Amino acid sequence: AFCVQADVNLKNFSTAIVLPYLQETMNLSSIAGRLNTNIKIKGQTKHIMNLNVFGNVSLNDFSMKDNKDKNVVSLDRLYCDINKIDLNKNQYLFNQLTINGIVSSYEMYKNSTNNFSFLMKPTKSSKTSTTNAKKEKEKPMIVKVKDVKINVKDFNIKDLTLIEPFDYNIKNINITSKDFDLNGKNKIDIVANVGKGDLNVNYEGTLNSISNMNLVVKMKNIQMKDFSPYVKNMFSCPLTNGTLALKSQTKITNNNLKGI
What we know:
Blueprint lengths: L2 E12 L4 H4 L5 E17 L6 E16 L4 E16 L4 E18 L6 H5 L22 E18 L6 E16 L4 E9 L2 E9 L7 E11 L4 H8 L7 E11 L2 E4 L1
Parallel strand pairs: 5-6
Antiparallel strand pairs: 1-2, 2-3, 3-4, 4-5, 6-7, 7-8, 8-9, 9-10, 10-11, 11-12
């Protein structure tokens, strides 16, 4: 076996080149963005999965539009500082993940689909044959990030399944976490402008279990009339006024619930 090492250095590489490949499975009209990489790859020729990856990646001015030319997702900048990616160990360790200026939306339609399910092209079903070959047990994925900062500039929610469509806007969503561990205990903070009000969420616990967690939710100045389409759909009368303020804490210890 031979040891190999490669440097991947890209500057302002256009992501539009991947569009034809994505269009094989997705209803897309365009992709734009500038990719920059400063990556070192080390491995062996004998085992292709014995690869280690180090370095950093950034993506600027990214946008993806569906085949109706509607924005699926766009962002100002993504930056990822890779401490180490070890494919053989299924280990992904990052020093920093920062995403700024995300703009996206979620739309629900009357045929039980949404704008993301519409995005995917139907796949042809194929019969799979079973074999007696022993499959190697997959190693659990390890994902750790020392510093996570995600900013969603604008996220719009539309429910077109109702008699009167629901259209709601959330701005300036900021998600932060230190020493994030996909399989461990985390502390995640979320703040956002919800309509004309404010939302603050603090979560402590794991992502794969709620047997031990502490969730604090604070809302203020939430305009109730914004949710009138749901009330009108159920009771045939609108909500015309009122504001909501809420502070709640949900604590679960060894599967025992305590709500405050």
